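Treating backbone geometry as a discrete language has practical consequences that deserve illustration. Part of our work consisted of pairing the sequence of a single chain with a tokenised description of its backbone. We regard such an encoding as a compact summary of how the chain folds. The amino acid sequence and the backbone structure tokens for this protein are reproduced below.
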Amino acid sequence: MKISPKVRMNRLFRNGGCLDVAVDHGVCNEPSFLAGLEDMPRVIEMLVGARPDAIQMTFGQADLLQARPEHDKPALVLRLDMGNPYNASRHRVMWAELQNADPVLPAVQMDAACVVVNLFMLPDEPELFRQCVQNIARVREDCTRYAMPLMIEPLVMLPNEVRGGYQVDGDAEKIVTLVRLATEMGADIIKADPTTNPEDFHRVVEAARVPVLARGGGKEDLRLVLEKSAALVAQGAKGLVYGRNIYQHANPKAVVAALMAIIHQGADGAAAWEVCNRGA
């Protein structure tokens, strides 16, 4: 019998939706990303109690989740790559590399439900883009061998001099084009940038032909985050991948509850804000 990646994907998409809390920021070599992640055992303890659908981690930290005894703990999404586009100053050489010579095997060993790899599109950085394409091609081959779902993360970034650092370009045309490329390369799931106008996000979903999770990016005002999140889900996103807007909040469990209400109960931004204010 041929094993389908959907066997593992079913662990991610409960009732058709997924909240994936990303705490894999330690590979970014960016100090500002680590605020709130200093004590990883405490972070994972808190997140397991908050009960999102999945937690996105690196191999070196994944034991904190997978060694736990709970049968209903969040699914593991394993980050396979790392790179240097995240810092405020542009580097002389930009790069993206897989973390392991046999990149998908550790995900199988850790019983991950999915793996994730970046597809960087930075202005005037064709070599970085080529490295990402090579990484994805290598991982796609292994994912097929192991029936492991592949999440591709297309990232369209602004020139460093515009705002400095890791800043998303929300141009719908650029995002749709890069998402289409991720689909052509065999993505099972796509983690996509939100479009500047959330009403354009349906174009991203239509281009993908696979489940799309909208990514969060930098920390913002939470009420606006919830309103935008509800709009993206209304446009067809199957869920969200958020990190700093959860783990850098004073009450991460309440934020998880609000986002889960949007994804799994169809709450709008106002209703989600009420859920958050009730705490969790």
